[in-house]
Design goal:
Blueprint lengths: L2 H40 L2 H36 L8 H7 L2 H5 L9 H41 L5 E4 L5 E4 L10
Antiparallel strand pairs: 1-2
Helix pairs in contact: 1-2, 1-5
Length: 180
């Protein structure tokens, strides 16, 4: 067998292991987003702080995995005489023999075809969960702003209605009116 072909196959096997870690990271991220939304709703600041510390700690290992993936892409690009940007799973699937596409790379994710399908599905799910979390946090910020504006805009005159439905301008600055 040609040394270049063996080198490409070895690099693809290493890439499958790295992609396996990517799959685990995306699954962890989905779990973190769910937990984040739950803690924000519960207003559990202590648990939220612990979650953020855990995410920061895990991000270091993900950075190393990302660097390893980029290094493997460079090696594959050199072996295949193309640019790094052209090294995608689809391209690898197109150039690898059929038995290598179906061959399992690692115990968890499986073949290149399975890994690509799983990554695609997880990324779509991550996009949806990220959007949901963003919307929740945006609504929380909007509600907080409305509440603060209502509290601190006390000096502005407003209109109040008495039990007979007659309007009266409110010019005092009390936060809560105790008049009936």
């Amino acid at each position: 067998m040609n040394a270049t072909v063996i080198s490409v196959q070895d690099k693809v096997n290493e890439l499958l292991a790295v992609l396996d870690k990517d799959i685990q990271h995306i699954q962890d991220s989905l779990s973190w987003l769910n937990e984040l939304r739950s803690l924000v709703i519960k207003r559990d600041d202590a648990a939220l702080s612990k979650l953020l510390q855990r995410i920061r700690a895990e991000s270091d290992s993900y950075v190393r995995n990302d660097q390893q993936r980029q290094s493997l892409r460079k090696d594959l690009a050199n072996a295949l005489s193309c640019r790094v940007e052209q090294i995608t799973l689809s391209r690898l699937m197109a150039i690898l023999p059929e038995e290598k596409k179906a061959q399992g790379g690692s115990r968890r994710a499986g073949s290149l075809t399975n890994i690509k399908a799983k990554l695609t599905a997880l990324v779509e799910q991550l996009k949806k969960e990220h959007l949901s979390t963003s919307l929740l946090l945006s609504d929380c910020a909007r509600f907080n702003n409305l509440l603060l504006r209502a509290i601190f805009d006390l000096g502005k005159a407003g209109t109040i209605y008495n039990p007979k439905a007659l309007a009266k301008r409110q010019t005092d600055t009390a936060f809560v009116s105790l008049r009936l």
